[in-house]
Predict the 3D structure of the following.
Amino acid sequence: AQSVTQPDIHITVSEGASLELRCNYSYGATPYLFWYVQSPGQGLQLLLKYFSGDTLVQGIKGFEAEFKRSQSSFNLRKPSVHWSDAAEYFCAVGKTSYDKVIFGPGTSLSVIP
Amino acid sequence: GAGVSQSPSNKVTEKGKDVELRCDPISGHTALYWYRQSLGQGLEFLIYFQGNSAPDKSGLPSDRFSAERTGGSVSTLTIQRTQQEDSAVYLCASSTTGTRFGNEQFFGPGTRLTVL
C-alpha cells in the first residue's frame, strides 16, 4: 500500500536560514509527488509537484524539491526562510493508475527572528 | 466561482444528530475528494468521486458516513448519529480530470465540525 512519511513533526529555523523538509514514500512505481502548504487559518495551497522529467522541480515562494528514486524521497528545500513561511507542510503521493492521493502527517515549521 | 467552496464554515451539533456538509467544486472539475483533518493531524482520505460515481469509498470510517455527488458538481457528505470523535475539519478538493494525470487538487476552506 502507498504510504508517506514525514520524519520531522516540528522544525524551528531562524529567519534567513536554509530549510529542508523530508518526505519519504513507499510505492512500487513512479508516483506523482506533491508538496502542499497550510498556513494558519488558510486552506491548502500547492507549492510544487513532480510529474515526470527533471527530478529537481521549482515551485512557488522560492521552494524547490528533488525527487530521488533510489531513496524514495522528495525533500522540500528553501535557501532562505522568511517569517511568512511558518506553516504546516504536507507531502503527498499519487498514483498514475488511480485518482487517489495519500498525504503525509505533516511537518510544522516555526520561524524565529 | 473562482475556487472550491464549502458550507457551512462551522457546524456545532449535539451527539446523535445528523449533519450534512456541502462542497461546490471548481466548475468543470470532474474529480472531487473529501478529507478529514483532526486537530494536529494530517489529512485522512475519506472518499473520492469521478463524475457522479465514487470508485473509492475505502476511507469512510464507518457506515454512519456517506457521500453523494449530483450533476457532476455539488457533493454532500452526510454523517449520521454524530459522535464526539467525528469532530474535525472536513476538507473538500477538486481536480480537473484527476490526480492520476498529475493534476493538482484545489482545496476548499473546510467545514469545522464540533460534536458536543
Q: What stands out?
A: The interface with chain B takes residues 32, 34, 36, 43-46, 49, 51-52, 90, 92, 94-106 of chain A (CB under 8 Å).
